[in-house]
Amino acid sequence: MSATPSLELLAPLSGVLIELDQVPDPVFSSRMIGDGLCIDPTSGVLCAPLAGVVSNLQASGHAISITDDQGVQVLMHIGLDTVQLAGKGFTARVREGERVVAGQALIEFDADYIALHARSLLTLVLVVSGETFTRPAAANGLIASGEPLMRIERNASPAGALVEEEGEALFSSPVTLPNANGLHARPAAVLAQAAKGFAASICVHRRQDSANAKSLVAIMALQTVRGDVLQVSAVGEDAQAAVDALAALLADGCGEAVEPAAAVVVPVVVEAPSPTLLRGVCASPGSAFGRVVQVAEQQLDVPEFGGDEAHERASLERALDEATRALQTLRDNAEGSAQAQIFHAHQELLEDPSLLEQAQVLLTQGKSAAFAWRQATEDTCALFERLGSHLLAERALDLKDVGQRVLRLILGVQERVAELPDDAILIADQLTPSQTAGLDTRRVLGFATVGGGATSHVAILARAFGLPALCGLSAEVLKVPAGTQVLLDADLGRLHLMPEEADVQRLLLKRQEQRQRRQRETEQAAEAALTRDGHRVEVTANVASLQEVEQSLTLGGEGVGLLRSEFLYLERQSAPGVEEQSATYSAIARALGPARNLVVRTLDVGGDKPLAYVPMDSEANPFLGMRGIRLCLQRPELLRQQLRAILACAGLTQLHIMLPMITQLSELRQARQFLEDEALALGLKALPKLGIMIEVPAAALMADLFAPEVDFFSIGTNDLTQYTLAMDRDHPQLASQADSLHPAVLRLIATTVKAAHAHGKPVSVCGALASEALAVPVLLGLGVDELSVSVPLIPAIKAAVREVGLPECQALAQQILGLENAGQVREALLDHQQTTAVEPRVLEN
Ligand code: PEP
Ligand code: MG
């Protein structure tokens, strides 16, 4: 792609232009973040000053960066100290990763609210990639949104580009971030500025994510929060000094006044760098001992020029068609699984208009189809990788994968398949999703890669296959000779190149014990789950695909207790149609057959899980906002269509419909009315069973009023715990306290069961607590009738039911309800487990 040497930026707002020197905030006036201009706004919508991709949108909605295809990066920051408004007053109109055109609305803001609650409304427009610019307009004049604001001279190499240094990375000790609002623009600028003072390549790491420490936008894109545990790494001459200085700066708040963050106990394993041990990030848990197979990328010879333009164009189109068909076949063969969703995403990449347009331009310049296609995909991948967002970087991997697929088809080259021993541990710079999806899991025991991330498609596939996997290893791993015996310990993030015999033996023994126990449990999985005294507990599955349903049946699942229907709605640009939905529900219903229960939970999105096609206001507190049934009742057509689609499988199975996040009786009544209307329109005589999730304390406390109006309750302990204890279910520092075994949660379960049974209605538990073997005695003792659990754990939960007797569970539950905290409950359950730990029961056939 050829770039024009200069670029015109448009004013993102109407208002009064102010020079940066006059901004009453040294972080901006000193140009530490970047040079630019300031506007005192008279309009309330911030628009894109240039075309590009939203490379960062701060969770609090007050700052956004756009990066164009040549790397020019512009940061807009609305107001001063507005991060403290925590999103109030700002409504984002775009999402991170979205491509925008110049002039497109990005963020709406409530100028009155911000003016009253923040220091200032002054809005900064800063060129953070370092280019110089000239100003067409006179200073201190008025400017209207969309008018030319400045002209940027493009640099040959942008200042923020990361220069890769060779060598061993040094890591700092973990630092707990003390800044109340994480590394937002101000502290991120101070950190980036300090990092630029060192020659070393420097990264800031938070769990599996990392950012170039010299890039302000990349640091902001980490979306850190107070209490995050960060590490600094550096490679290069002054690496040690850089690591020490930047870790100290982070601990001190990067120029912000901070209170010391609550101490977080992080087990730090300080190990001398050792060539026999490589560290990475766990992408999929487990461990394996096997022989190294190095998987190198297939190099293809691509001629720059080809035949005439029409011929090359036809050749590209043919290859794109063939690739789309091949992906469709792979999708059909994997229907309902994680693989199918990934191949679908690849098909969508093949239709990306900007990618195709780039290739077409090159064809008109006489380039060959292969050259044009490779150039277009490589440029787009490079853009994704540059943007500093780990999500986009991971999509780059998908694009490389699908790009190679098309390239091979244009060139008529077969994919090379490596010969594998039957204990292969694959090592690669990166594995593509296609390679991972096609792995022979009888021979491959695990893999380790330099690139990739724990949220990548490759990691998702590894988890689906149960293959241990590490990512983020140093490039040293690519030099390990093929055939070397290695110990891959993904749980601890380690690859041992010369494992001690004792370590291998310990690992093999642990695995053998686990395997034996799992085998015993799996052999007995098809048998009913009866307590020692013959009380039957139904054990069903929590699923989100047809494949999981099928797997659950092979593992002794007795039906589906929770179908999370969100999988049909997420990661797409428009809502699934009634036909598409009903085809999926019907396939699942057929797999279960007429005698088993299928509980379809209606759409539970909103708040933290927004849908691209359902515009929602950003919310300061999404878990307390328009979630679940609230969103569906606000958009009745969404719910009506889903109910229509679900009703299409009535008669194929024992159909149940379940409503999430019910808080008020009126919500249940309104949803029932919709169901009755839709059933009537379809001419159905009998309604399916209708139940609700008990996951809001209000519903548990009023279960006696809900019970007469429902057919069943299912307790969502994940949400019930977060709402009862007022602890975010994903909060890293509260994770150990947000325990579903807290007596307060157990008391709500007891209340729910009592009310349901008084009206003859059954109760299941479908939250993660049901999948915890330790919790089984207390749940049975409280009277729960059904446990709906994560698929791989069905055999283990059935085994746990068989170990106990109902009367002893009832006594234990009563005792537990009187305890003070979750720790005491866990202790009581462990004591109970030890006293009942006898030889596993042998079931008579
Ligand atoms: C729950 O909240 O316990 C539950 C099962 O629902 P989800 O985890 O899907 O919110
Ligand atoms: Mg829930």
TrEMBL record:
Gene3D superfamilies: Glucose Permease (Domain IIA), HPr-like, Phosphoenolpyruvate-binding domains, Phosphohistidine domain, PtsI, HPr-binding domain. It is found in: Cytoplasm. One of its GO terms (biological process) is phosphoenolpyruvate-dependent sugar phosphotransferase system. PROSITE patterns: PEP_ENZYMES_2, PTS_EIIA_TYPE_1, PTS_EIIA_TYPE_1_HIS, PTS_HPR_DOM, PTS_HPR_HIS. Its EC number is 2.7.3.9. GO terms for cellular component: cytoplasm. Residues 25-129 form the PTS EIIA type-1 domain. Keywords: Coiled coil, Cytoplasm, Kinase, Magnesium, Metal-binding, Phosphotransferase system, Pyruvate, Sugar transport, Transferase, Transport. Its cofactor is Mg(2+). Pfam families: PEP-utilisers_N, PEP-utilizers, PEP-utilizers_C, PTS-HPr, PTS_EIIA_1. Residues 313-340 form a coiled coil. It comes from the Bacteria. This is phosphoenolpyruvate--protein phosphotransferase. It comes from Pseudomonas batumici.
